[in-house]
Design a protein that fits this description.
The complex is a heterodimer of chains A (237) and B (104). By secondary structure, chain A is mainly alpha-helical. Chain A contains 9 helices and no strands. The longest helix of chain A is centred in the N-terminal third of the chain and has 29 residues. Chain A is globular, with a radius of gyration of 17 Å. Chain B has one domain: Ubiquitin-like (UB roll) (Roll). Chain B has a 3-stranded antiparallel beta sheet with strand order 2-1-3.
Chain lengths: 237, 104
């Protein structure tokens, strides 16, 4: 089991990077209602990231607050899983990423909410309600798209295929998360069955995010997210 | 009821419209809050949740297909509503309300 700082950084970075990714949809989603829903989920995640990163900063004790950790840290120091940094693609690809991630995050938050660390468990207990909704929202979209038109089905399958190789990393023992796999598998299989979709073909999992070995996508994301604080350190308004 | 032109264009690009009713607190009735587009009832509930209750406005939501609502004809407004205008005796304004009585 990792120490508190590492653990909080990982949880915070997962939420931060996915929140930033989702916010790229703002103003571009297929419908106004979907636009709002994705922005809401993004805000939930950024809220969680703020709490986890603040905890990490306090634990580290070097005077870095959540903003410093989010906006003035280099790409190699990010500890998020590779799944959350993957590009949005089309709406189905975004749904696929959210579906796989939120179902995992909900199980993880439920577990951490019971964990001995009171600081972590308090954040997780708050997050679990938000994430339960994310998981439900994404799962319903998987069914709608998978069991929808020929085109939506094709896109949903392509989206899941894109994201599937990043699943194994979620259950990296370093998080104490392998035990969640059985329940996660059952959830995913259940929803895919309802969507009349097959489980994506098993592929060799890509790992490395927890060690700072990221895909090229993360650098671009950080460029945009960190621009202001890099150009004008400490700027506020 | 729908005219033939629109029903023959299947499937439509636009999702159907749903009217959203939100109960602000237990004990109050659901009030009309607005409308959302959604392909099905569950999606409508979620869109309503994200659109109309994100600032703690509600504890319960109803969604109703807008097409299920029958509205009064504005052209008949004078026949429907104006006759009530001069019937002041229907307003209970002739009672004296004791001072200090709340919630009346």
């Amino acid at each position: 089991m990792a120490n508190l700082f590492d653990h909080a950084i990982r949880l915070g970075d997962d939420a931060l990077i996915l929140g930033q990714r989702l916010s790229e949809w703002c103003g571009h989603a297929p419908m106004l209602e979907v636009d709002l829903a994705l922005a809401n989920i993004a805000l939930d995640l950024i809220g969680q990231a703020t709490l986890f990163l603040k905890l990490a900063g306090d634990e580290e004790g070097k005077g870095r607050d959540a903003d410093a950790l989010a906006f003035r840290r280099d790409v190699l120091d990010f500890r998020n899983c590779l799944l959350v940094e993957q590009p949005n693609g089309d709406f189905a690809q975004t749904v696929a990423r959210q579906f796989l991630f939120s179902n995992w995050q909900e199980l993880l938050m439920m577990e951490i909410a019971q964990a001995p660390s009171p600081a972590l468990s308090a954040i997780a207990a708050k997050a679990v309600k938000e994430v339960a909704y994310h998981a439900r929202y994404a799962s319903e979209w998987v069914v709608r798209l998978g069991d929808g038109s020929e085109e939506s089905r094709r896109r949903m399958i392509a989206g899941l295929d894109w994201m599937w190789r990043f699943v194994d990393e979620l259950f990296d023992p370093v998080d104490g998360a392998p035990a969640l796999r059985t329940e996660w598998d059952a959830r995913i299989a259940g929803t895919l069955r309802a969507a009349s979709l097959d489980l994506p073909k098993a592929r060799r999992g890509v790992m490395g995010g927890r060690a700072g070995h990221h895909s090229e996508h993360l650098g671009h994301l950080l460029c945009e997210m960190q621009f202001l604080q890099r150009a004008y350190p400490g700027a506020s308004w | 009821m729908s005219d033939k032109d629109s029903s023959s264009q299947a499937p439509t690009k636009e999702w159907p419209l749903w009217e959203v009713f939100v109960r602000a607190r237990n004990g109050l009735s659901h009030k009309h809050a607005g409308s959302v587009h959604a392909a099905d009832a569950r999606m409508a509930l979620e869109a309503a949740r994200d659109t109309y209750t994100r600032r703690m406005e509600g504890v319960s939501i109803w969604v109703v297909p807008s097409s299920a609502i029958t509205a009064s004809d504005p052209g008949e407004a004078s026949a429907l509503f104006e006759p009530a205008a001069d019937k002041v005796y229907r307003h209970p304004t002739f009672y004296t309300v004791p001072e200090g009585v709340k919630n009346l």
